[in-house]
Write a structure and sequence with these properties.
This protein is 29% helix and 23% strand. It has 486 residues and is an alpha/beta fold. It is elongated, with a radius of gyration of 25 Å.
Length: 486
């Protein structure tokens, strides 16, 4: 993809690297979900705004050296790899914010979220891979940054690498586990996340059922919501919404990132110098980054990604073989699938897309249960020959697991299409009914898992629906447009 033309400009002398602040950097407030903020830096890039603006903003970036004295690193592949992390420090949060957003408790000064972002060589695709914070890891030998003691290689949870050895040990551990060479390191903080969301005017999120988490205070009804900074914080932190725990939380983080990208790239922010500066200044004020990520990199990235959209991003998590792998002295950890994860990281090194290509289709309504998980027996409740077959074929084409053998129903003079279901499968029934406009729902105790659809004379079509957490392809990856609001 050719780089857009830039007007010539005289060379400027490079400024000396900013000095580290006198206060202990490791104690600065951090929070894992702010990876959304730092990914926005990449998307905003400098999208045509100008060298002077970005160069001026760059002075707000706090510089660190996560690659110091690193040896025997993986071979570089195609494209660019960034490690986005956030820690759980909360020292600068006000008492009111801590109370309102349930942010009490002592921080562990470890990484709360880790994401590996691969930008394709042609700058037309971003692959975001979530690394579970409780992943079982073999931490390389290192000097403890707190005590100065030398540690031999030992097992630990991935998020604890930061507490023992800071950004440097985190990068080394991720490189050892993935075989991916990290080109840039970005770490962002909690205040920036909230301010960025508020500066954007909130971010739209869709949920098909109510979401509550007593730990974070999240309380959303089913439907579409525009979350402000504090609400977004609750949404991406919640781990107790369902039984999926941290794995479910990672999916919500990915969905939030996709929505943030969609809003950023479709709202004109990239072409509005005033708005761009306001948002970028908010984000970069508390970003920590390696010395190599500066003005030139942001300009080149921003100009190359001018056509970037939510569909240009793809999201997945490391394949897991055991979500609760016990380790003596450490507790329950997340064990990666050795075969599938190796294939995933090889695809990143080879600069290949992770999400399967999907044919262009009309927008689909999001439902609680994916059609692929719902079994259906179709009956024809009218005198019209072939209507049962028509409905069966249409439901199957939408993804429902029909029997493929429609039957005649009784009576044969049904006016409204009827969906009969066992109350134990009410979520599946509601998802099926969403595909049948005007259908009546009727609970039948003891019917079992198979839904019963009897077509009425009002049957005309089956509307496309998709599951909220449907994943496709060998790496269970989805593109951003598949997980944002329709």
């Amino acid at each position: 993809m050719p780089t857009p033309h830039r007007s010539p400009r005289p060379p400027r002398p490079r400024a000396a690297p900013p000095q580290l602040r006198s206060r202990k950097q490791d104690e600065r407030p951090r929070w894992g979900m702010r990876v959304a903020t730092s990914l926005s830096v990449l998307v905003l890039g400098a999208g045509g705004i100008g060298h002077a603006v970005v160069a001026n903003l760059e002075t707000g970036i706090d510089r660190i050296d996560p690659f110091k004295d690193m040896k025997n690193r993986p071979r570089a592949g195609n494209g660019t790899n960034l490690l986005l992390v956030g820690t759980d420090g909360r020292d600068s949060i006000t008492p009111d914010e801590k109370k309102k957003y349930r942010l009490g408790g002592a921080p562990c000064h470890c990484t709360d979220t880790i994401m590996l972002v691969h930008l394709s060589a042609d700058k037309e695709r971003a692959s975001i891979v979530s690394l579970p914070r409780d992943s079982y890891a073999e931490i390389p030998e290192h000097r403890d940054r707190n005590t100065g003691a030398e540690h031999a290689a030992h097992p630990l949870k991935l998020n604890a690498a930061y507490s023992e050895g800071g950004p440097n040990l985190t990068v080394r551990t991720v490189e050892d586990m993935t075989g991916i060479k990290i080109d840039h390191y970005l770490e962002v903080d909690f205040p920036s996340f909230m301010k960025t969301v508020d500066t954007l005017g909130g971010v739209q999120i869709c949920t098909v059922r109510p979401m509550k988490d007593s730990y974070t205070g999240l309380d959303l009804a089913g439907g579409t919501h525009r979350l402000n900074g504090g609400q977004a914080l609750q949404y991406v932190r919640s781990r107790h919404v369902d039984g999926a725990a941290d794995l479910g939380r990672m999916q919500r983080q990915q969905r939030f990132l996709a929505s943030l990208i969609k809003q950023t790239t479709s709202s004109g922010v990239l072409l509005n110098p005033v708005k761009f500066r306001e948002i970028a200044s908010t984000m970069l004020h508390s970003v920590r980054a390696d010395e190599g990520f500066g003005t030139e990199q942001m300009l080149d990235l921003g100009q190359a990604m001018r056509g970037f959209t939510a569909a240009s991003s793809e999201f997945t998590s490391v394949p897991v073989s055991d979500p609760s792998y016990p380790v003596k002295g450490i507790g329950s950890t997340v064990k990666w699938d050795p075969v599938k994860s190796t294939k995933l990281f090889q695809a990143l090194r080879d600069d290949k897309p992770l999400a399967a290509k999907q044919p262009k289709q009309a927008a689909a309504k999001t439902v609680d249960v994916a059609p692929q998980q719902i079994r259906v027996q179709v009956y024809n409740g009218t005198p019209m020959d072939g209507l049962g077959r028509t409905a069966d074929d249409a439901l199957r084409a939408t993804g429902f697991r029909t029997t493929g053998a429609p039957l005649d129903g009784a009576p044969r003079e049904l006016k409204h299409t009827l969906v009969e279901y066992d109350p134990r499968w009410d979520r599946s029934a509601k998802s099926l009914a969403a595909a049948l406009p005007g259908a009546e729902l009727r609970a039948v105790k003891g019917q079992g898992a198979t839904m019963k659809v009897t077509t009425g004379t009002d049957f005309s079509k089956v509307e496309r629906v998709r599951g909220e957490d449907t994943h496709r392809g060998a790496f269970a990856a989805v593109t951003g447009d598949q997980v944002t609001c329709p």
